[in-house]
Amino acid sequence: MSLVLNLTKPGEAGEKISLNLTKGEQFTAVIEWSGDVDLDSHALLCINRGQGGKVAGLEDILSTYNIKRKIRGQEVGILVPEADGSFSIHNGALTHTADVTGGNDQKEVIIINPAKLPETETFEIPLLAMIHPQHGDSKFQDVPTASVYILDS
User: Fold this and answer.
1) What is the pLDDT of residue 16?
2) Pairwise CA distance, residues 1 & 9, whole Å
3) Is pLDDT at 6 greater than 90 in this prediction?
4) In a 3-state reduction of DSSP, which class is residue 83?
5) Among candidates 25, 40, 2, which has minimal Cα distance to 146?
6) Tens-digit pLDDT profile for residues 54-86
7) DSSP letter for each residue of 108-137
8) What is the pTM of this model?
């Protein structure tokens, strides 16, 4: 099974999709783009207890901006990357394969394994794409093509 969501530019109507999974299923979210802009993919692990999904803390944020490092002498982030550049939250329930930072025809991958999450909770996992801030005033309209694929793993 595969779902494709084409990203929209300002003024275009976006499409909303949802994917309901059973406990043993695993899937992969791929963001793919072209152009000389650095996009970053992120995922939030939100618990929904009937009042909308909420992130409890940094441990629920799968983001390159949450990787442990020093910025101007200050420790930031809590995620420790593996030797291959991948990083994960909740013991591998969500894994980002690595940050891609340059070139054309690029893609970033997030693997989601719901079997590693507690069965007693209801989770929402919003996926986000952002332009890396070091690209100055770049906007999504500067990205020639961008797509998100949800693949059965």
Assistant:
1) 58
2) 26
3) no
4) coil
5) 40
6) 999 999 999 988 999 998 999 999 999 999 999
7) EEEEE-GGGS-TTS-EE--EEEEE-GGGTT
8) 0.81
| 133 contact partners, CB below 8 Å, separation of at least 6 | none
Is residue 138 a contact partner of residue 57, using CB atoms and an 8 Å limit? Answer: no
Q: Spell out the SS3 assignment of 54-81.
A: ECCCHHHEECHHHECEEECCEEECCECC
Q: How far is CA 149 from each of CA 8, 9, 14, 56, 68, rounded to the nearest angstrom?
A: 14, 17, 15, 27, 28
pLDDT of residue 103: 58
41 closest CA partner among 95, 2, 99, 94: 99
